[in-house]
Amino acid sequence: MQHFKNTRRALAALVAGIVAALAASLLIVPPASAASHSGELLLRGPGASAYTRGYAVSLVGKEGATMTYTFQVRNTGTTLAQYRININDWTGAQAQLYDGTLLLKPLASSPDGYYTKPIAPGGNQALTLKIPIPVGTAAVEHYSSVYLYGTDGYVLDSRNLIAEEPAVLTGSTAQDLFVKNGGQLAVGGAGHPAQVMTAPTISGTQVAVFTATLQNSTAASTTIGFQLYDDGCAQVIVKDGTLDVTAAARNGTYQTPSLAKLGKRNLTISVKNVLAGCPRGTVYVYSKLGAGPLQQQSILLANKAA
Q: The whole model's pTM is what?
């Protein structure tokens, strides 16, 4: 009997120790009455460039690759505050949220979400989100939305992190459009509608430079039209070699010379001088059937540093 009592006391002590350890590892969530309504999300740009208030950052990777993003929860208030984060996955994404090496996704994707550490006024907590690109799915764009709330459920901010699969550069139409920035893999083309290409974050006089390739992949010969629209938040310049064709691109009258099968024409698109009050410059580019209707679309993002 004495042995049984000692065993029971030892087991009780062990359970108590486990409970204490778990309690110590969990953050204390402040009551709703103490919730802060001053906070924001900032995304780090491609290539470990500066953080931005732009609504999205995209990265390009092949099937089986894992794309890694960093974002900050920033306390814009005047008192110590905690926040709640929820992650919603779309189009096959299965994002994993980390604080350093600690996996937070089971919490972040639950109805209650993940509660940040207490953050001092003007301070931030940096978190990492990873999106594995699935193999063998029909989708070519996989993205996750990050939502920031006060601890009382008040909605504060949201951002999108996008994993794009690369273009198939052999093409499949006579009006193929592919876009890229720097050393990133190109996106676009038939079956890859409205893919997003994000340049490293810019500030001051810096310029985001994109290349748009118009390619005749199937016809014996053809001309390809090009048109763009933008959000009015930045200066956009389009060049064909050294020739400025911005006006023609804007009004939809630009056309390539006649291109033989597999022939292509590269246009350079520069985005700079993002206006005050705008977190980014967004450019929508299209290939056209000669002077006819719009065909393929891609989206160019030039985010401004926060």
A: 0.87
